[in-house]
Amino acid sequence: MCAARGLTKSYPALRGRRGTPGTPEVRATDDVHLEVRRGEIFGLLGPNGAGKTSLVRQLTGLMRPDGGTVEILGHDIVRHPERAARLLAYLGQESTALDELTVSLAAETTGRLRGLDARRARAERDAVLDELGLAPIAGRPLKKLSGGQRRLACFATALVGERPLLVLDEPTTGMDPVARRAVWGAVDRRRAERGTTVLLVTHNVIEAETVLDRVAVLDKGRVIACDSPAGLKEQVAGEVRVELVWRERPPLEVPEVAALRDRVAESGRRWTLRLAPEEARAVVATVTGGAAFAALDDFTLATPSLEDVYLALGGAARQGLVRA
Amino acid sequence: MNQSEGEQHDVSVVPAEVLPGGALAVQEAAPQAAGLGPRARLWPALAAVYRAQLSRARVARIPLLFVATFQSVGILIMMRGVVDGGSEAESVVAGSSVLVLAFVALNLLAQYFGQLRSSGGLDHYATLPVPPAAVVLGAAGAYASFTVPGTVVTAVFGCVLFGLPMGNLWILAAVIPLAGAALAGLGAALGLLAPRPELATVLGQLGMSAALLLGVLPPERMPEAVRFARDLLPSTYGVEACARTFSAHPDWALVLGDLAVCALVGVVSLAVATRAYRRAAVR
């Protein structure tokens, strides 16, 4: 359906101007191999700056890779980037091209530019706006909407004029649960009826676990793992995540707490540990029983998530993935 | 085509989360290339972009149009104290009218494309199967048409103020689209070629200042070097064409010549802008 082989892209080093240091060359995409199958929801998961958007821009023909191939439904996208627009619909992170249009006109215009005739574009516009519950705000300019509503309106434009592949770059950012359900409902309907394939970019771990069939985990431009969310989580199945939140500072004078120090991922007052179950029990007993308890604000024990998979695989960023 | 409406009734409402993982995913059946979706043709796409841009302008640009018109009317009033009439008055009225065009078509369009390019807004158009010329011409056309009321108001006000004949003002019907094409093409090219949006803004502003200084002031009073710069500016030919028609017996051949220069600059600059768009869309 959509395959990338040996995809590589570097941003050249920038020479510093007076007073500002230059930046070295950045490998945005580093020898990426991917295979998205027809009808699946395939995810690209990684923290901000992992190279997700750069990769997607190469897959959609928006950016020319330095090396490697991209094939969508049998078409070579590196050689013929203009064909991408006739094979896929893309929802980028920016809505500046649509901001001053009404929801209704944004959807209709996008449909016409996707090659629909006027009647068809109007009919599809009405159908999609009804489907997503946007009909009541169809006459309002996108600029005047809340972040989540605007995002939903942009998603609507991606659905007008059917395409076999939907490429969605963080489609649900800022959306409330109702809007999210509308998005995944619409995706599911197209998948069931037409076998639509979805390539989803996300940094939201919960979303990745609930909607994706398979996920590629990205870190510093490389794919560090690719499997179903359940398959990936099996890699860390033997572990439990312990989170400790201290009131002011960790009580390092308690020897058991001090001993944990070099195994934690620290973020402000929060300590995160990945431990074997019996170890975790011992840690919880220590911090809830002894002298450390006075310094403890909150703690949680949880089964591992894709975030733990990312960390266990050697992912470098400590924050950047969200659970929401 | 009722297909899409029909599909509305028997939809599945199972959320994607509930589906067993990968149940719908099937192995690639045939390696042969799939059919491509339709391509948007030039004229329908141009019409769609034009309509969308015009509505954008209505929402967001009305205050700026007032600014453009008041600026030109203010210049007319100011120049009334300096210029008594005759050929100098003709240049002032023609220059102020064309200045509205320069403000919107050159300055605002350069800013719009500069901002669209830097913010990634071009991705939206670049991932639609639309000819680049449709995006550039649609936007340029919308910005040029948006100047019509301001240009006409300025010209009529100027004629009344300086006592010029209004019989040949219909020439605006040719000056606005042709000078509009030249200035909008220039604005679009500047906006799409400028590496940073601030630079696009500066270039647009400079272009408008040039049109103001070189177009409104009567050329008879300018030194040779400035007059040469004036000849290089495309808006000058719109001003000249307009100014010539105020005389009792206009030399229509020269008017046509001026308009032809506008048209030529328009074609070239719009072609450059289209190329620039193509380059900016795929980085």
UniProtKB/TrEMBL annotation, chain A:
Residues 1-26 are annotated as: Disordered. It is a peripheral membrane protein. It comes from Streptomyces adustus. Keywords: Antibiotic resistance, ATP-binding, Nucleotide-binding, Transport. Pfam families: ABC_tran. Residues 14-245 form the ABC transporter domain. This is ABC transporter ATP-binding protein. It is found in: Cell membrane. It comes from the Bacteria. One of its GO terms (molecular function) is ATP binding. SUPFAM superfamilies: P-loop containing nucleoside triphosphate hydrolases. GO terms for biological process: response to antibiotic. InterPro entries: AAA+_ATPase, ABC_transporter-like_ATP-bd, ABC_transporter-like_CS, ABC_transporter_ATP-binding, P-loop_NTPase. GO terms for cellular component: plasma membrane. SMART domains: AAA. Its main location: membrane.
